[in-house]
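Re: your question about DAR GTPase 2, mitochondrial

S., sorry for the slow reply, the queue was backed up all week. Below is exactly what I fed in.
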Amino acid sequence: MNHFRHSRIFRVKEGTVVFRKLPLINKSAKGFNSDSCGYLVQRPMAAAETLIQKIGKAVKEVAKTRSSEWWYTPHMAAASRAIDERIPLVDLVLEVRDARIPLSSEYLQLRKFPSSSRRVIVLNKMDLANRPQTKEWLRFFEEQKCMAFGVNSHNRENIREFLTFLQGRVRELKKKDGTAHAITLMLVGIPNVGKSALANSLHQVGRIAAAEKGKLKHSVVSPQPGETKSISSLKIASHPNIYVLDTPGVLPPNVIDDGICSKLALTGAIKDSVVGEIQLAEYFLSILSLSDEYKKWGTLPGFETRQVLSNEGISNPDNRQKRQYPTDHTQDFIVNNVRRTLFDTVSSFTGCIESGKDLARLIEQELEVLRKVFHLPLESEESSYFRAATKLLNLYRTGRLGHYTLDSLPSNDPTLSPWL
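Result:
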């Protein structure tokens, strides 16, 4: 794996990523500006920059105290030391990243170790990311001489393919080193990238393939970050025996820039309460509104949406839709209402969403109509919008509101690798 030091490739300013100036890059390209030192600066869309800075500031404030319950806690520090001790001893290190943020979810601890052919970058949750962009990222890592594999931990066929890939790597290692012992792989990564879910799926598929009997073991899986507290071992294959170590997620000791903080928060690597659910929902709505994803929902029927948004749909106790609404926002007809409502709201907006002020106004409108679509009474405005934000984030994180890759490729030039 090729590692490049930051000073050779890029400098990070607050909220910006700076690449070395290259003649092949068009300075006038959208999203790039030249700074006073002659570097090309890729900035987040100006319209969403305020939200990004707010989220980054919230994360930094909590991390600065060192007393929070989630940022580089004592158990993370202990896990980091234990992982560092085991890395030289295991046969293969699987660095699990979130496919939605292939660079921002890097496990920075690995930079302390020399590059190695015994390392694989695993882009998990690929079912939640933009598929064409995931393929581009896998190609990018390949160009950087990094082994990489895209995975959906909940797709059994995909897990079989990944297990076959790992067994192939193991055979190569045994042939090269002549090892006769059982093979040990170790999953490492930041919180909530799906390490435990991946370990469980490999264990289940591997045991079935080997026709082994006995009770299946399970690592603890939770949508909340930081649930895995200790290192556990699961057997995933026989002949040769292969074991995988599931490890706790570890954040870097020092907070990174605003853009990375905001992406980690939105994808769930950081607890929502640190930033605030409403602020995270606003950030997601800014991404959705500035993308083309919502345009796919224009053909959805709008009848149910209009009925829900009407006063009659909210107040009439005999309304059939209302009786279906109270608890489960994941029902298909509600999700379709959310999609169609967002399409209608963005499409009919008369302002310029590239403008920060206009985008903020649009987001306010979106949250208001979503409160009605989710059928939340305005008993307490703060509580109502909080619940709407929580439901919206859940739909985004389960892939019900489109597939988004939040990190952009650094460059088509394979020599640019700021994070590897």
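The CA atoms of residues 151 and 162 lie 7 Å apart. Confidence is low (pLDDT under 50) at residues 1-44, 305-326, 412-420.

Happy to talk it through on Thursday.
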